[in-house]
Specification:
The protein is α/β, with parallel strands linked by helices and 245 residues long. The protein has 3 domains: 79 residues, no CATH class; 53 residues, 3-Layer(aba) Sandwich (Rossmann fold); 59 residues, no CATH class. The two termini are 38 Å apart.
Amino acid sequence: MAQRAFWKGYLKLSLVTCRVAMTPAVTESSKLRFHNINRKTGNRVVSRYVDAETGKPVDDEDQVKGYERAEDDYVLFEDDELEDVALESTRTIDIESFVPRSSIGWIWYDSPHYLAPADKVARVEALQAAGRRVLMVGDGINDAPVLAAADASVVMRSGSALAQTCGDLLMLDQAWGALPAAIVVARQARQRLTQNLRWAVVYNVAAAPLAAAGLVAPWLAALGMSLSSVLVVLNARRIGMGTRA
């Protein structure tokens, strides 16, 4: 089951800004979890908030958020007031510079996440609803859903295994310049396929009744069938001729 994005916003690099979504890279469904147990009774221990001075438990209805403006001096806020004092945010990750991977502390690798363009599948579906045929090009794990949703999809050879499974065309050449040539070849293949099917229908409709009625010698019918097969193969071999990847 695909992980849901828990944060959506924008990624800004210099003058370029794009909408992104952050998704956990790992699932916690198989993560081991432990509970605090009372050694004497074997029962689970329940956590409760207590007053810092008196040590007495504080009921839920008596708990309130407070902002410390001075030592032991708090401004109290009710739940319906928190939204009014919340800090405004543009929800934008602004990249100022890149650093070497070796300079990042190990603690930041504790919870890996994917940061990917957001709403790609929705964009593809919107184009399809408008009557457009969509070609999607991708290579990452996060591209798998949109690759499967597109009318046609292309994946690079260096792409992830999941992306290759969802793609319709695997580009063995790492150069993106081969993509226009692949589109031309695909169109030629469809054209040749249509021609061969039409020829096969015409030949069989015309020749089969004549052979069945005995109006054509068996050897001539066999020769015609062989020539028909050769013509279909030669026509198919024209696919890609004159096209440079």
